[in-house]
């Protein structure tokens, strides 16, 4: 059986690190981390290696995912080095206040590129591969037989259904993103790919009993492992 890879787009010290660490400790030998800042990626790589242990192999790519050419180049490199992912975890977003009507339309377009354009390009690139993993999993003669667990998971929030006017830009791009993931779920869950959202329905804090990164990761893993539908709400 080939080594399993988790691709994390939007690696950071909060939800990103907690989900990546738990998922890697449960299932993945290879982890690919994408975020803009090289120094922050180095810290994430060290934290994940420390938490998971020497069995995990972490590669990092410092890319702004709104630069689709740079994103494609990084993923070409990762795919060639360790193979395509069995699970894609999309976690990138920019949390920035947006006031009516000081907020420039270019800022909305930038947020749409993060949350929708980059996500669509990732789906275009990897969902056909995830479908083939699912089909091979059902084939008793395949090396992936009953072992593959193809996933395409996206961190979302309550904003799509409950927008906040002071965060109207993030609210609207998250709504568009959720809608895209719902369409992908409708089309590809029947093909055996677990497509869905980790709906973190409020502010995250280490002190919050529910919405702390470790609990969010634990709930997300239980949901993913149990293949329990389109979303988990935390
Ligand atoms: N934190 C909360 O209270 C909360 C609540 C509900 C939902 N959420 C959702 O949870 C997700 C993030 O979780 P988090 O807040 O805990 O953050 P996190 O996991 O600590 O980090 C997310 C990372 O995404 C990266 N990123 C942002 N824009 C990017 C871009 N253009 N290209 C590449 N990488 C990019 C950032 O790294 P770089 O700066 O290095 O690029 C950032 O560190 C988001 O989808 C957010 O909407 C968060």
TrEMBL record:
<keyword id="KW-0560">Oxidoreductase</keyword>
<protein>
    <submittedName>
        <fullName>NAD(P)-binding protein</fullName>
    </submittedName>
</protein>
<dbReference type="InterPro" id="IPR036291">
    <property type="entry name" value="NAD(P)-bd_dom_sf"/>
</dbReference>
<dbReference type="GO" id="GO:0016491">
    <property type="term" value="F:oxidoreductase activity"/>
</dbReference>
<dbReference type="Pfam" id="PF00106">
    <property type="entry name" value="adh_short"/>
</dbReference>
<dbReference type="InterPro" id="IPR002347">
    <property type="entry name" value="SDR_fam"/>
</dbReference>
<comment type="similarity">
    <text>Belongs to the short-chain dehydrogenases/reductases (SDR) family.</text>
</comment>
């Amino acid at each position: 059986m080939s080594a399993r890879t988790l691709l994390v787009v939007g690696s950071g010290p909060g939800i990103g690190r907690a989900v990546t660490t738990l998922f890697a400790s449960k299932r993945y030998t290879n982890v690919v981390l994408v975020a803009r800042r090289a120094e922050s990626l180095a810290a994430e790589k060290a934290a994940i290696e420390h938490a998971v242990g020497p069995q995990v192999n972490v590669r990092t790519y410092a890319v702004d995912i709104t630069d689709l050419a740079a994103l494609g180049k990084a993923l070409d490199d990762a795919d060639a080095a360790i193979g395509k992912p069995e699970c894609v975890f999309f976690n990138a977003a920019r949390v920035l206040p947006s006031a009516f009507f000081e907020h420039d339309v270019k800022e909305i377009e930038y947020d749409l590129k993060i949350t929708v354009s980059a996500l669509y390009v990732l789906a275009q690139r990897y969902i056909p591969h995830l479908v083939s993993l699912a089909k091979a999993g059902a084939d008793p003669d395949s090396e992936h037989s009953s072992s593959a667990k193809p996933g395409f998971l996206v961190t979302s929030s309550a904003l799509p259904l409950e927008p906040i006017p002071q965060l109207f830009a993030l609210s609207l791009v998250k709504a568009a993103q959720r809608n895209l993931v719902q369409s992908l779920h409708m089309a590809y869950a029947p093909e055996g790919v677990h497509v869905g959202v980790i709906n973190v329905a409020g502010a995250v804090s280490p002190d919050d009993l529910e919405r702390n990164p470790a609990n969010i990761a634990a709930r997300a893993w239980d949901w993913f492992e149990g293949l329990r539908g389109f979303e988990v709400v935390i």
